[in-house]
Amino acid sequence: MGKRKKASKPQGPRRKEPLPTVFTCLFCNHERSVAVKLDKKAGVGQLDCKVCGQKFQCGINYLSAAVDVYSEWVDAADAVAHNGEGDPEREPGAGRLSVGRPGASKGKADVYDDDDDRGYDGEGVVADDDDYD
């Protein structure tokens, strides 16, 4: 005869790993040199590199974490490098990318200004004279 199996003891809850607040700098490539500070009352996230002095600031909400500020910095730096524009910190809407075609106007009034380009001219459309019963 065999022994009875003992019920396994319940394990405690797993400890959650905290999200990082120190990152690698995009410009000087030093590891653990970029520190992120969140001011949730003011709604501002600040990022600062200890080595090269690079700074970034963006708006946050109550759900934001340090990783979110770092990812916005990466996106803003990529957008500036891709578009060749000025400093994203000094532009309105820093850290926010607009969606749409480049050079497209935003107003609806500008879209339909030319009536000639507005639709199908009807070339090749023939009226149907036959009656179908």
From TrEMBL:
GO terms for biological process: transcription elongation by RNA polymerase II. One of its GO terms (molecular function) is RNA polymerase II complex binding. SUPFAM superfamilies: Zinc beta-ribbon. Keywords: Elongation factor, Metal-binding, Nucleus, Protein biosynthesis, Transcription, Transcription regulation, Zinc, Zinc-finger. InterPro entries: Elf1, T_Elf1_sf. It holds the Pfam family Zn_ribbon_Elf1. GO terms for cellular component: transcription elongation factor complex. Residues 81-133 are annotated as: Disordered. Residues 84-93 have a biased composition (Basic and acidic residues). Transcription elongation factor implicated in the maintenance of proper chromatin structure in actively transcribed regions. Belongs to the ELOF1 family. This is Transcription elongation factor 1 homolog. It comes from Lasiosphaeris hirsuta.
